[in-house]
Amino acid sequence: MIKIIMRKMVVVLAVLAAQISVSFAQDLLRIDITQGNVDPLPIAINPFQGQDDQPSMIGADIANVVKSDLNRSGLFQSINPAGFIEKDLRVNARPRFGDWRIINSQALVIGKVSNLEDGRISIEFRLWDVVAEQQMMGLQLISTPSNWRWVGHLVADAIYERLTGETGYFDSRIVYVDETGPKNRRVKRLAIMDQDGHNPRLITTGQSLALTPRFSPTAQEITYLSYANGQPRVFLLNIETGQQEIVGDFPGMTFAPRFSPDGQKIIMSLERNGNSNVYTLDLRTRITRRLTNTLAIDTAPCYAPDGERIVFESDRAGRQQLYVMDADGKNVQRISYGEGRYATPVWSPRGDLIAFTKQLKGRFLIGVMKPDGSGERILTEGYHNEGPAWSPNGRVLTFFREQKGEKAGPGLWTVDVTGYNERALKTPGFASDPAWSPLIR
Amino acid sequence: MLQQNRVDYLRSSSLNREITLSTVLHILVGLSAFIVLPTPKKISLPDYALPIDVIAIEEFTRMKSQDPQPEKKTDQDEEIEKLPVNIRQEAAPPAQIDITDRMPLPESKPKAAETLPEQLPAPVNLVGNAVPLARPRPAKPERKPLLDTAAVQALLDKTPDLPEPTSPKPLANLPPGERMSLSEIDSFRAQIRACWSVPAGAKNAENLLVRVRVQLDPLGRPIAKKIINRAQLTDSFFLSAAESVLRAIERCQPYKMPPEKYESWREMELNFDPSKMLNG
Questions:
Q1: Residue A312 confidence (pLDDT) above 90
Q2: What pLDDT digit, counting tens, does each position of A126-164 carry?
Q3: For residue range B108-158, what is the model confidence (pLDDT) as tens digits?
Q4: From the CA of B195, how many Å to the nearest CA of chain A?
Q5: Tell me, what's the pLDDT at B73?
Q6: Percentages helix, strand, coil for chain A, rounded to the nearest 5?
Q7: Residue-level pLDDT at B68
Q8: For chain A, which end, N or C, has fewer CB atoms within 10 Å of the first or last residue's CB respectively?
Q9: Min CA distance, B1 vs chain A (Å)?
Q10: CATH number at residue B189
Q11: pLDDT at position B12, please?
Q12: Residue A152: inside a domain
């Protein structure tokens, strides 16, 4: 009898257990959303207010810098202020979010510039999420009035970082080779400008040819190649102080060296007896170390951002291809397998991509691939595109493009890593060989 | 006869036992059903009023006079995101550099330490601290919650009282006429597609799958949303993707859904998966 009861209890419990699991089983409708848009985020940027004329003017200028930085990135679309419904919004007041939603804004920036007693200015701003009706960020910066452009870039960086999750890149500079004169006798000098093309100025005299500037990852310094008396010589130039020193004479060098991520070494390729190999030079000990040892031309090396690996170009397989090896030269792996010739590889500061120039059937293409060689994508193609350089956040590439014709010359361009938003970067004259600085802050 | 009687007796008492057992078990089942089965929870719909600020002119003038000076942050108790900032005064490099008098020889000398030449102003470190702004003091009396870096999660957690997984009716139990058809599901997808911005260039964008549980009211308006896969929220790219998804859900309302099938779409789980779009 008890056995019967026990058996029946077991059955009941089993039924109960089944009931429990069924009722807790989430029988919800599950929908996969796999398609969206890649539209830029609409953002409303108010001119930063000031109590007097001077702070007001600075405030308007700062807002314009923020607007053009964000628009130029291709990820944002600033809304025309003529369409704003709520006007004269104070930085410490809560916005009427309905007014901003109606004009389709998803984010809102309000700011204020005030004079401080010691002659400096204080810049405050808030970034609001219009849809969630929450403040996303509030920040105050203090600086001199003459630095308003810099402050604008810092504000743009902060907004960009908060909304995209990426590190910003607006607070940076681009160094390039400024070219003047007839095509067969170009004067090539180094120039530097803000990443948006403002404040261009020359930094070498042009007495000797200056080529291939490269930025240090740790300081506002560049190396570049100059031919003095026909001999290639590497210089190290500090952008802020203007001080220069000679790193050395390197007969057989055709590209300026690149820095290692810790700034302690430089990596380069040197030609000896008809072949070219990759070397590193420790800047403290001055010890040179050879990393590749083939009869092929191994050149254009570039470190990964963690310093553990190096990508370079080699024709050891017959045609120029890309290879990755460990920082000590071991473990060389080929990563490019497509048609065409691959050259000038540069590893993204984000570490996830390698950009390169590819020549295929007379066309020049700039592309990216993952460090294992997969996922090759072409971002742009043209008559003569070359020399990609990454922005400090690994999101944008700059490169130069030659135009056809006697009177034509090279110019700088930028493109987003998705291939969208290809834009010309305005320079006073012809420009080539860009290099992008790390963040100045 | 006795045998027969015994059988009868046995039968009757076993019958009684069976009946008793059956009754007991029925009661148990009834009790367990009482305990286990969920009670439909009341979802109170918030008021959906258009925010209209009626400000008397006196309030406005009062607001103006209260306009604070560039605030020192000591009296504020909330800390918003800090962005460490160093603004250096730009040392204007000269347009031309004379390199003839720089002569260090590379082999014998170690790398020269940078010295600041006297004629150029040294870079000046201005105030390095970017001070976080306080929350605004709103004119209305309502108190806003604290916003700190962890409260970015609060931004995402729109549903403090999102009921624990209890579906009003398991989908399987719904009659076919009350379940969403494929074309209706596609129509919903199309509606939300217009609002969802895919984080195309983000690092590892193909892994930025955001899963959200959403509750809709009968008019197709979202009343509660919650990110389910919260573990990745520490990644700034994922956070940005998650915020973008929540904005998308909010923006595209009201969703046109078949009203007679409300039970099947009142609570849904949405998987926003950019990988197919990005991998081509």
A1: yes
A2: 999 999 999 999 999 999 999 999 999 999 999 999 999
A3: 222 223 332 333 333 333 333 444 454 443 332 223 233 344 445 555 555
A4: 7
A5: 40
A6: 15, 45, 40
A7: 43
A8: N
A9: 26
A10: 3.30.1150.10
A11: 67
A12: yes
Q: What is the mean pLDDT of residues A182-187?
A: 84
Q: Is residue B10 part of a domain?
A: no
Q: At what angle do helices A53-72 and A148-164 cross, to 10 degrees?
A: 40
H or E segment and range at residue A221:
strand A221-228
B251 domain-assigned: yes
Q: Report how far residue B255's alpha carbon sits from residue B221's, in angstroms, rounded to the nearest whole number.
A: 6
Read off the pTM: 0.73
Q: CB distance A129–B170 less than 8 Å? A: no
* Greatest mean pLDDT among B97-111, B165-179, B251-265: B251-265
What confidence score (pLDDT) does residue A182 get?
85
Tell me which residue range forms the domain holding B233. 181-196+204-278
Would you say residue B265 lies in a domain?
A: yes
Please check whether residue B26 touches A, CB under 8 A. no
| Chain A residues whose beta carbon lies within 8 Å of the beta carbon of residue B106 | 246-249, 286
- Find the residue in A nearest to B121 (Cα): A241
Residue B1, token pair as written in the block = 């006869």
CA distance A94 to chain B (A): 6
Closest-CA distance of chain B to residue A120, Å: 10
Tell me the ipTM for this assembly. 0.83
Cβ neighbours for A155, distance < 8 A, ≥ 6 positions apart: A62, A65, A66, A111, A123, A125, A139, A141
Highest mean pLDDT among A20-34, A129-143, A216-230, B107-121: A129-143
Domain count for chain A: 2
pLDDT of residue B46: 53
Instruction: Sort A415 into a burial class: Cβ within 10 Å, 0-12 / 13-18 / 19+.
Output: buried
A190 CB burial (10 A radius; 0-12, 13-18, 19+): buried
Q: Does A106 touch chain B (CB under 8 A)?
A: yes
Q: Which amino acid is at A75?
A: L
Work out the number of other CB atoms within 10 angstroms of the CB of residue B44.
Answer: 7
pLDDT in tens, A343-361: 999 999 999 999 999 999 9
Compute the Cα dihedral for A406, A408, A409, A413 and give only its sign: negative
CATH number of the structural domain spanning residue A393: 2.120.10.30
3-class state of residue B237 by DSSP: helix
Which two three-digit tokens encode residue B34? Answer: 């009482």
For residue A15, report the phi and psi dihedrals to the nearest 5 degrees. Answer: -65, -45
A203 and A195 Cβ atoms separated by less than 8 Å = no
Q: How many structural domains is chain B composed of?
A: 1
Count how many pairs of residues, chain A against chain B, have C-beta atoms within 8 Å.
288
User: What domain range includes position A51?
Assistant: 41-164
CA gap A440, A194 in Å, rounded: 10
Nearest residue on chain B to A101, alpha-carbon basis: B251
Q: What are phi and psi of A150, to 5 degrees?
A: -60, -45
CATH code: domain of residue A101 = 3.40.50.10070
For chain B, what is the mean pLDDT? 65
Cβ contact A64:A57 at 8 Å? no
In a domain, B119, yes or no: no
pLDDT band at B59 (very low <50, low <70, confident <90, very high): very low
